[in-house]
Amino acid sequence: MNSTQIRKRFLDYFKAKGHEVLPGSSLIPADPTVLLTLAGMLQFKPIFLGTEIPKYKRATTVQKCVRMIDLENVGKTARHQTFFEMLGNFSFGDYFKKEAIAFVWEFLTKELKIPPAKLSVAVFEKDDEAYDLWREDQGLPAEKLFRLDEENNFWAAGPTGPCGPCSEIYYDLGPSVGCGRPSCQPGCDCDRFLEVWNLVFIQYDRSDNGELIPLKQRGIDTGMGLERIASVLQGVSSNFETDLFRPLIQEIKTLIKLPEPEESKLRIIADHIRAVTHLVADGVLPGNAGREYVLRRLIRRALRLGLVLGIKGPFLWRLAEKVILEMGDFYPNLKKKKEQILATIKAEETNFLQTLELGMQLFNQAILEHTGKKVLPGEVVFKLHDTYGFPFELAGEMAAEQGYSINEQEFKKEMEKQRERARLAGISSDKNKSKLVGLDLTRFGRTKFDGYEKTSEAAGVVAVLPKENLVILDQSPFYAESGGQVGDTGTIMLDQQHLKVIDTLLAPSGSIVHLLEQTGDLAPGAKVVAAIETERRKIIQGHHTATHLLHKALQEKVGAQVRQAGSYVGPDKLRFDFSCLAAVSQEQLAAVEARVNEKIKEKIKVEVLEKSYQEAVALGAMALFGEKYGDKVRVLKIGHYSLELCGGTHVKSTEEIGFFKIIHESALGSGTRRIEAVAGQPAIDYVMGLVNSWQAEILKTTSHYQALMTELGQAQKGGKLIVVEPAALLQAIKKYDLKSVNQYLDQLAATLANLKEGVAKAERELKNLKINQAASSAAGFVRELVEINGLKVLTKEFQDYSMQMLRSVSDTLQNQTGGCLVILVSLANSKVSFLITVGDNLIAKGLAAPKVAAVFTPFIKGRGGGKANKVEGGGQDSSRLAEAFQAVIDLVKANL
Ligand code: SER
User: Fold this and answer.
1) pTM
2) Which of 221, 226, 228 has most ligand 1 atoms within 8 Å of CB, for mutation?
3) Rounded CA gap, 784 and 53, in Å?
4) Apex CA 797: angle with CA 794 and CA 799, to 5°?
5) Which residue, 7, 225, 440, 647, has most beta carbons within 10 Å?
6) Cβ pair 26, 37 in contact under 8 A
7) What is d(CA 425, CA 291) in angstroms, rounded to the nearest whole number?
8) Pocket of ligand 1, candidates 155, 167, 229: which has the most ligand atoms within 8 Å of its Cβ, to mutate?
């Protein structure tokens, strides 16, 4: 039986037993307590807990799962994977142990025709009820029944939540496969007894403090590993030899250059690429934290193994294509997102390959340097992580391969230092949001949000936290920060008191939490009126709808693979981060900007559709993740142009957005880019601000230019001042006349650049002019030379002379006299610059320039440097200059 047939047999069987066949959920769980979907029951957690009413009493699913807990075992055992499919049946307060056991036994022995002699069963040691059911109802002999402890036979999806004793069914692969110990039995670590199915009898909710609280209605959660049951039915000794893996491993072999590749490495790569493909399909992008990090780690881990096996360049994306081909029929999502999946994986591969080699050099060098202790210092591991993108664990694995360990303590210290640097640089997490940390607001539940329709309404106060200045109402028009859109500000009015709301936050439990300057007389039960700041909200809404237009325009003009990776939608601007492989060109950006303005100008109606999850998928809405079957979702529809899931608030027509302008585009690293843009009033302010500041700079530069020209004694050429009429500019903005606006901006930029060039040229001319003037004035100074015993000496003081000017004076004098002693000083802003030159005749008489300088500089608190016939330098004090000159004269006299 191939895997497709097994899935179908399973679902058909339970359908016939009254179960509703439901789709599995995304790998990104709605449940915030776990990172990734790790079991079929996860999407039903609220039902088991009794907080959600089920639509059906019985359900059955095929659920894709990722479990990182087994990562180390992948490739080492026949039965562990990170990605696997779980076949499950569920009862929500309907049947319990008796029927669950009967279904499972019938399915295995009658439907799949597995000989009962091959099967053994374990129950929780204290669960006599289950033991008796197996014994009496199904007639299992006692030697096939085992009682195991809590660690083995008590199941929970996490530290808290629904859980209960379980019963596991094992397939015996025979003594030849396992450890051979006489004590070997179900639950042993070896490969002999293969656990194929787990039946959890859910009857408790584990509370935060670990207490087991009996659930009002009990349930059943079972899970059978598809790959494992396939291995049994296909008579192979490992999951990796089933039809689920064989074609993939074959494909990897064709890429490998080594003659005898290590089987375990092939298996790891095959496992990881299945996880990676599904993770990306469900909307995870490689990154540095949480599930993004899991994805990155899997890609980089598999990529490195590929290199070890001799594969050159990116190859995982090609394997992903094979995964899509093999699994795309059952998971159509894969086919639909194919292009994006391949592009994302390839980008991450390329990205890592770029630094991998350099990182390996560093790694190998560190290995050589630490052969003695066999411990790699944390600093090296940190550098591999920070500079070369090696996940910490990957460095650890590579070190272990060579018999080394790594100093984790030191690594953590380096990470801490880096965080501190980031904190000092002002990159800290949102201050307001942190106010909610540590507060348990669950008892206040979900606040009714009315802000889609209303900007103000009457409401009742539910809770006040005066110390934190937080207030919760029973209903509110205030949008709480989520999905990138910032929280509203406004006022809560209690009789005559107007209390200012400075931010609105969303508690994990769904409460809308208003952050106030002060809570005044607010108390639970009080009646208030809550009103948001409407002008600010309008701008935010414009930015939000513009973000959707931008997303779509990027997909049109830059590439279909562009996907949102994060966003900020505020009153000041919008920021949009997106995955993109290559740099975005100026032309593309201009085209995107033009396209968004075009769509605004078209006055397209913006509508919100309330859809079921399946309907939204069918409509092709973007960014479906986190939602699950049965949810109502909001789909934002901008005419026929854009369709996106969104819980935010939006304008009613694109016309309301106003002019749209991109202000910045940059790379965020790792195939992610960022665009910052403004719309509406902020866009007008931005453009006008830009024009004003350029005009001011042009004015300033023009007057500087004019002054220079006057000094040069030349007529003013060039430097024509362009004045953009504010009214004309505003007109262009209002008409979405992007071309004119950009023309104005370009003109101003060009004018300024021209002007600056003119200034630079004039400054050069003036400098040369002054040097020449200085040289010609030097002729006049010959008369000022003093003769001391046949040697000519000049000491002279100037204002604001550059060193070049001093040099040209000195050169002229030395030339005309055929050798003399010249000390020239220029004073500027109480600073002294000096130049001392001597002719060869003076050097011959023992009067080299450094000797003169040694006498001269103490008086001016200065220093200088040079050679025998020239010393240049500066000093701090000009008050004793006359004495300094005299000291030099005295030196000359004394020397002769
Ligand atoms: N939730 C149980 C498991 O994951 C049974 O589905 O094993």
Assistant:
1) 0.54
2) 221
3) 108
4) 150
5) 225
6) yes
7) 27
8) 155
